[in-house]
Amino acid sequence: MKTLTITRPDDCHLHVRNGAILKTVLPHTARQFARAIIMPNLKPPVTTVAQALAYRNEILQVIPEGVNFTPLMTLYLTAATTLEEIKRAAECEHVYAFKLYPAGATTNSDAGVADVTKIYPLLAALEKYDLPLLIHGEVTDEDCDIFDRERVFIERYLINIVENFPALRIVLEHATTKDAVEFVNSANDKIAATITPQHLLFNRNAILAGGIKPHYYCLPILKREAHRQTLINAATSGNPKFFLGTDSAPHLTHLKENACGCAGCYSAFAALELYAQAFEQANALDKLEGFASFYGADFYGLPRNVETVTLEKTNWTVSASYDEITPLKTGELLCWKMI
Q: Measured between alpha carbons, how far is 155 from 140 in angstroms, rounded to an integer?
């Protein structure tokens, strides 16, 4: 196969930051994707509709001229979120979901929720207004092994959430384990999961074998090969519960390459190419369009895009950096390129 043409996809989990970084990274996403679910973990976090609309306007200002791209905004769910704010979000055409971060789970999650059971009234309101709950599914206990945090979150919290709020649409973001895939497969049809390119392409050896490689460090952390294989099987299965969410997370290089480097992989520069590589390795390129272009849109009740994008089978070398942001697979070859 020399070229691959698919319906223009959506990125259902994206970080674009703000300020100067936003101006660097947003054009990369807008080149490939028609829409993206924008994460709210800025400093300060995006917790109100007014803040989300201001952030949306900032994003709109840096979309390249002539490019059709729509940011889909989310609010950061905290213990201080009010029922009135949830109602305002439900009435706002530009807000599509609330994001739940356990406190301390990842970048800019200090304002997250310390005890999920204490916000059940807020989850009831989300269920009432049919606003999806997007979950970073990890516990943050110091005594919990970092490789087990997703599994423990599912066992401790997520099973109960689904049982208590059966009509609540939930996305288990950036699923990384066999446990997550099995849970989503066994849950009702309101439950879905996004999968990142790094978790499809790499296992934890990518971070640790032959020296510590900070640009492969993300949260949830890369797992064992058995988990990666399970994710590949889920992504290429044609099951609409699993869809594309890059979790592309830009950090300046000096903040990654230090004694306490930030978590996050920058993949937006070639997100679709990275997914194509993973799907080709699994002999499943015919499954990429559903995963990338259809299932996320369907889950969010959005019309499927009508434009197309085309990838060409050609080798190219990933740049060393993009304005002080080191990309995933820097200096390495990719075998697909969007044309």
A: 14
- 12-69 pLDDT, tens digit per residue, is 999 999 999 999 999 999 999 999 999 999 999 999 999 999 999 999 999 999 999 9
Q: What is the DSSP letter of 216?
A: G
Catalytic residue (one of 10, 11, 179, 247): 247
pLDDT recorded at residue 108: 66
Two tokens, residue 190: 């309101």
Q: Judging by DSSP bridges, how do beta strands 3-7 and 308-317 pair with one another?
A: antiparallel
Question: Is residue 192 one of the residues assigned to a domain?
Answer: yes
**How would you classify residue 329: left for phi > 0, otherwise alpha for psi between -120 and 50, otherwise beta?**
left
Cα 14 from Cα 296, distance rounded (Å): 13
Q: Write the CATH number for 195.
A: 3.20.20.140
Whether residue 179 lies in the annotated active site: no
> For residue 337, is it within any domain?
no
Q: What are phi and psi of 114, to 5 degrees?
A: -80, -35
Mean pLDDT of 132-140: 96
The pTM of the full predicted model, rounded to 2 decimals, is 0.97
Six-digit token string for 18: 């703000």
Within a domain: 131: yes
Distance from C-alpha of 136 to C-alpha of 138, rounded to nearest angstrom: 6
Range of the domain at 252: 9-306
Tokens at 330, concatenated:
């820097």
Distance, CA of 88 to CA of 83 (rounded, Å):
9
How far apart CA 284 and CA 257 sit, in angstroms, is 35
β-strands 242-244, 191-195: how paired? parallel
How far apart are alpha carbons 214 and 229 in whole angstroms?
Answer: 23
Residue 334 counted as domain residue: no
| Total tally of structural domains belonging to the chain | 1
